[in-house]
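Re: [ENG-882] Designed sequences occasionally contain unexpected residues at chain ends

Forwarding the minimal case from QA. C-alpha cells:
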C-alpha cells in the first residue's frame, strides 16, 4: 500500500508541475495581452490628441493669415482714403494687433517644421528623433525660463556670468538651428527637383506659408521686439517662443526661446 502511494505521488507530482506551468504560462499570456491593449489605447489616445492639436494649430494659423490680410487691407485703406475709414474697425494698437496676427499665422510654420522633423526622423529613427525633436527643446525651454534654478540644480555656472558655457550655448542656439534645418528639409523635399533646380510655384507657396514663422524667429532672435514690447510681456514672449513651437511641431506631426 505504501508502495502504491509512492508511485502515485511520483507520477502525480510532474502532472501537478505541468498543470502549474500551464497556469503560469496562461497568466503571463493574459498579462501580455492586457499590456498590449493598454499600449494600444495609449497610442490611440496620443494619435487623437495629435490630430486634435494639428486641427487647432491649423485653425489658429489660418485665422492668423486672415487677420494679416484684413490688417493689410485696413492699412492700405487708411493710406489711400483715411477719411473714409470707420474708427470702430481700427485697432487701438495696430502694431500689437499685427504682432498677434503674425504670431498666430506662424502656427502654420509649426506644421511645416513638424513635417521636416518627420522627414528627418525616417533617417534617424524614432528614439533619436524623440531626443532631438522633443526632449532637447523641452530642456532648452525649461533652462531658458528658469536659468537660475537650472544652474543651481545641475551645478552649472550662471547663464549671465558665463553665456559661452557649452550648455548655455546649446540652449541659446539649438532651437533656431533645428528650425532652420527642418524648414530646409521641407523646402528641398517640396520645392527642389532631383537635379537641384528650384521649382517656382512650390517655392513661392513655401515662402508664403513660412514667412510669418520666419518673421517671428527674426523678431525674437534679433531682439527686434524690444522696440515694440516692454517689461514682462517682452520677457515672456522671448522665453516661451521658439521652444514652445518646436514642441508644438512634435505634437502636430512628429519648437520657441
Amino acid at each position: 500500500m505504501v508502495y502504491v502511494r509512492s508511485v502515485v505521488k511520483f507520477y502525480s507530482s510532474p502532472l501537478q508541475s505541468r498543470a502549474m506551468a500551464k497556469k503560469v504560462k496562461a497568466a503571463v499570456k493574459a498579462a501580455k495581452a492586457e499590456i498590449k491593449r493598454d499600449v494600444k489605447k495609449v497610442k490611440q489616445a496620443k494619435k487623437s490628441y495629435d490630430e486634435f492639436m494639428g486641427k487647432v494649430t491649423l485653425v489658429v494659423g489660418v485665422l492668423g493669415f486672415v487677420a494679416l490680410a484684413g490688417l493689410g487691407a485696413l492699412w492700405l485703406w487708411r493710406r489711400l482714403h483715411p477719411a473714409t475709414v470707420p474708427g470702430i474697425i481700427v485697432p487701438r494698437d495696430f502694431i500689437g494687433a499685427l504682432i498677434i496676427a503674425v504670431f498666430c499665422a506662424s502656427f502654420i510654420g509649426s506644421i511645416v517644421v513638424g513635417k521636416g522633423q518627420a522627414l528627418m526622423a525616417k533617417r534617424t529613427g524614432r528614439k533619436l528623433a524623440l531626443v532631438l525633436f522633443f526632449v532637447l527643446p523641452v530642456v532648452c525651454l525649461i533652462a531658458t525660463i528658469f536659468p537660475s534654478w537650472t544652474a543651481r540644480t545641475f551645478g552649472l555656472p550662471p547663464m549671465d556670468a558665463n553665456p559661452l558655457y557649452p550648455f548655455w550655448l546649446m540652449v541659446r542656439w539649438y532651437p533656431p538651428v533645428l528650425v532652420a534645418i527642418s524648414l530646409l528639409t521641407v523646402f528641398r523635399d517640396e520645392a527642389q527637383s532631383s537635379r537641384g533646380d528650384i521649382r517656382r510655384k512650390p517655392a513661392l507657396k513655401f515662402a508664403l506659408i513660412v514667412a510669418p514663422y520666419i518673421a517671428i524667429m527674426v523678431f525674437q532672435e534679433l531682439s527686434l521686439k524690444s522696440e515694440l514690447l516692454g517689461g514682462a510681456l517682452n520677457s515672456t514672449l522671448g522665453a516661451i517662443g521658439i521652444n514652445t513651437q518646436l514642441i508644438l511641431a512634435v505634437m502636430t506631426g512628429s519648437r520657441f526661446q
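QA comment: On inspection the terminal residues look reasonable. Residues 52-251 form one domain. Proposing we downgrade this to a documentation issue.
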